[in-house]
Design brief:
Structural class: mainly alpha
Largest sheet: none
Mean pLDDT: 81
Helix content: over 70%
Strand content: under 5%
Length: 381
């Protein structure tokens, strides 16, 4: 259930970028409108997660995931029948509400488990999200052979979400109980400075991921490199992210989650810097793959550290970080759309390099203060 639902969530989040060429060609969207379309799901996610911040210890995890899946599936199916910018923006917002509920429900269930290897567990869970994200550009690439059927991209995204919902119905309520909250656990978390750095990591990582997913296809089309198709480059990114999360599930616990977080953040900065100063088309393809593999582990490792440091409020800290993560997917991608309208998408690598540098500073702080999460002392259930 967790994997199928998060697979669908990954598809729903990553489909915006591959859709942009179709929306611009078929519906006449401008670059600025495209930026808002990309950000609409993040806005909806932010709203849902913010509302749930004070309710996470009162809401059934099963109902939360079920509602989120329903909202995403409904949004995707309805998007097939509308062409106006306002309608698709509103449906993107609804998709974001569903995504926020599903991701919060699934990740809270995982973070509240005990006696597990945190790095391995979170890495595998987020790898499923990445596999879903691979599917969106893959479907967009196939649709490219039959461009008149581009709206099927929406429909295909609803299938795994519906399957996840059917699997959810077979799970007894008692297997997903609402954990008791310890008095003062939330206030204690919010008085700890490192929590806000963890939230910043979530904001910056999702900003970087959303910029890559949302704008790399348009950047590549404007570059007119011709090495691979824009949808193929998005697929390479998605595969790299999935591979990176798989690798994090194998190696993070062995080297220490904090050390792993710092290492992959350094690699991202180096790769984005090379992209900015050596924008050679063939090299860019390889750089995008390296960024994806390295950056993929940042968010799950950050969440693993947070759950380990604050086990008494795992649901609350998950919710808190996801609020800032949703802001990251909303603010910078839409702002970049306005900038690209005036300066073109060729400023994308410089923008991403700036994000990566600030992200490195934040991950250095989280990684250096993290407790080592050693799987030799825990057993996955």
């Amino acid at each position: 259930m967790q994997y199928s639902s998060l697979f669908g969530s990954g598809y729903a989040v990553s489909m915006a970028g591959p859709l942009i060429p179709y929306l611009r060609a078929e519906l006449g969207f401008s670059l600025a409108q495209s930026g808002y379309f990309i950000s609409s799901i993040a806005v909806g996610s932010l709203v849902s997660i913010a509302v749930l911040l004070g309710l996470i210890h009162r809401v059934s995890r099963k109902r939360l995931i079920g509602f989120g899946n329903l909202a995403m599936a409904l949004s995707l199916v309805m998007s097939m029948f509308f062409s106006s910018f306002a309608a698709l923006l509103a449906l993107g917002f609804l998709r974001g509400i569903g995504n926020g509920c599903t991701q919060l429900g699934v990740q809270t269930v995982e973070s509240e488990k005990t006696n597990i290897g945190r790095g391995r567990s979170m890495g595998r869970l987020h790898m499923t999200f990445s596999v879903g994200a691979i599917s969106a550009p893959a479907v967009a690439g196939l649709i490219g052979f039959f461009p008149e059927t581009w709206r099927l991209i929406f429909l295909f995204g609803a299938v795994p979400i519906i399957l996840g919902t059917l699997a959810l119905r077979s799970i007894p309520d008692k297997t997903m109980p609402i954990p008791m909250r310890r008095p003062g656990s939330r206030s204690g978390v919010l008085r700890t400075p490192i929590v806000y750095v963890m939230a910043l990591v979530g904001f910056l990582f999702v900003s970087l991921e959303a910029m890559l997913y949302g704008w790399v296809p348009s950047y590549w089309e404007e570059l007119n490199a011709g090495v691979v198709a824009p949808a193929a480059l998005a697929l390479i990114l998605a595969v790299a992210l999935a591979l990176g999360r798989l690798l994090s599930s194998f190696f993070a616990d062995h080297v220490g989650v904090g050390r792993y977080l710092i290492l992959i953040s350094v690699i991202v900065v180096l790769a984005t810097g090379i992209w900015s100063f050596v924008p050679v088309p063939g090299l860019i393809v390889a750089i995008i793959a390296v960024i994806g593999v390295a950056a993929a582990g940042i968010f799950p490792m950050n969440m693993a550290i947070a759950a380990h440091r604050f086990p008494e409020a795992a649901g609350f800290i998950t919710n808190f970080i996801l609020i800032f993560a949703s802001l990251g997917g909303m603010v910078l991608p839409s702002a970049f759309g306005e900038l690209a309208e005036n300066y073109g998408t060729n400023i994308l690598p410089h923008t991403i390099t700036g994000i990566a540098l600030v992200l490195l500073i934040a991950t250095l702080t989280v990684g250096r203060t993290a407790l080592r999460i050693d799987p030799t002392t825990t057993h996955e259930r």
